[in-house]
Amino acid sequence: MINELIKLIRNQDNDLQELLELLETQYKMIMSKDVFGLEGLVDEINECGKKIAKVEVERRKLINNGSMKEIVYESNSQELKGLYAKVKDLLNTVVSRKETNDLLLKQQIIFNNKMIQLMNPSREMKTYNSYGSLSR
Length: 136
Prior knowledge:
The chain is mainly α. The chain has one domain: Methane Monooxygenase Hydroxylase, Chain G, domain 1. It contains 4 helices and 2 strands, in the order H-H-H-H-E-E. Helix 1 (2-31) packs antiparallel against helix 2 (35-63). The longest helix is centred in the last third of the chain and has 42 residues, at 78-119. It is elongated.
C-alpha cells in the first residue's frame, strides 16, 4: 500500500506543478491584460483540475477513509513523508496563487464596470427625496 501511495502522491505532485505553472501563466496574462489568452487558458486549467481530482479519488479509495496524516506519520517511509510534505506545501502555494488571480480578476471587472458607468451614465431623471438626497 505504501508504494502505491507514493506513486499516487508523485502523480499528484506532477499535476499540481502543472496547475501552478498554468496559474503563473494566468497571472502574467492578467497583468498584461491578455483577455483572449485568458479565455484559452480556462480549458487547460479545468482539464488539469480534473486530473488532480481523479488522482485524489484513487488516493481516497486506497486509504479507505483513513487519515492521510496518520498513515504518513505511522509509516516508516522517509520518501512518503518527504513527498507528503512537498505536496502539502505545493498545494498551499497553488491555493495562494489562485486566490491572488481571483482577486485581480475581480478588481479588473469592478474597474471596467466603473469605466462603463462613467462613459455611459444613467439617462433616467433624478429626483430629490424627502431627505434632500438624489434618488433614482
